[in-house]
Design a protein that fits this description.
The chain has 14 helices and no strands. The chain is mainly alpha-helical. Helix 1 crosses helix 13 and helix 3 crosses helix 10. It is globular, with a radius of gyration of 22 Å. The mean pLDDT is about 80.
Length: about 260
């Protein structure tokens, strides 16, 4: 194939991919802008004390979504980094088996274990709480995998030299591992933020008696795709994760390409 034809083919594939990814969002925006009484609908959403039949404001719904996304991203990154650090730099007996068990979390997302997770959260007394909403989602085999592969590239002599100078493991983690892991942490934080933000079934199931824990994604489903308020909520629900991905795009490329080998 001639080089010029190969370039045209590559660009056509990229354009097709962009259309597939951006097309639904563009159609949503066009449909929303053509809706009658658009501005009053937005005023109703942002100014009302209760929306879509919920006794909760849109600001509270946004706050619940942000809290869920930030909680999942922060805890998942922290636990994944600590697990990867322990698996690489500590002579744990059977650590390959431990790593394999951790990877099982990749194949069992919260939707596949929702009933046992609900039972455990109920027994712990965490129903209708933000802690119960966040904690069952933070276990991430993907995060452990990425951090383990990344930290295996760090020369062990560097850690051994620090240990000979009297640095304890937590100081090695703070002074050596954290600075060089910043791109990876930023990349995974963005991924986990989007994962937490897009949760629908688990927050809806957990908040059995509290409407003030409703998230924006739950509101979109309740409004329906044909309602103007539902379309407005859908557009608002895409803005925070989209902004996070755009701001962390450089870190995503640096972090993930250096971490998976």
């Amino acid at each position: 194939m001639p080089r010029s034809l190969a370039k045209v083919t590559d660009h056509l594939i990229l354009i097709l991919g962009c259309v597939v990814m951006v097309g639904p969002v563009a159609l949503l925006v066009v449909d929303l802008l053509s809706a009658p009484n658009l501005w009053p609908q937005f005023q109703t959403l942002f100014g009302a004390d209760g929306v879509l039949g919920y006794d909760v404001s849109l600001w509270r719904m946004l706050g619940n979504s942000v809290l869920l996304a930030l909680g999942v991203a922060t805890l998942a990154c922290t636990l994944s980094l600590l697990a990867g650090f322990a698996l690489v730099f500590f002579p744990l007996p059977g650590r390959e088996w431990i790593f394999g068990l951790m990877l099982l979390a990749m194949f069992f997302p919260i939707e596949t274990r929702i009933l046992p997770s609900f039972a455990v959260v109920h027994q712990l007394g965490l129903l209708n709480s933000h802690a119960g909403m966040v904690l069952p989602i933070v276990a991430s085999g993907f995060g452990v995998l990425v951090f383990r592969q990344f930290l295996r590239q760090v020369p062990k002599e560097l850690i051994e030299a620090a240990r000979l100078d009297g640095a304890h493991p937590m100081r090695c983690l703070r002074d050596i591992i954290l600075p060089i892991s910043a791109p990876m942490i930023a990349a995974l934080f963005a991924i986990f933020f989007v994962l937490g933000w897009n949760q629908y079934v688990w927050p809806l199931m957990l908040s059995t008696t509290r409407q003030d824990m409703v998230t924006v994604v739950s509101g979109v489903v309740r409004a329906g795709p044909d309602a103007v308020q539902g379309q407005a909520l859908a557009l608002l629900a895409m803005l925070p994760p989209g902004l996070v991905i755009l701001l962390s795009q450089r870190w995503l490329m640096r972090g993930l390409t250096s971490g998976i080998h």
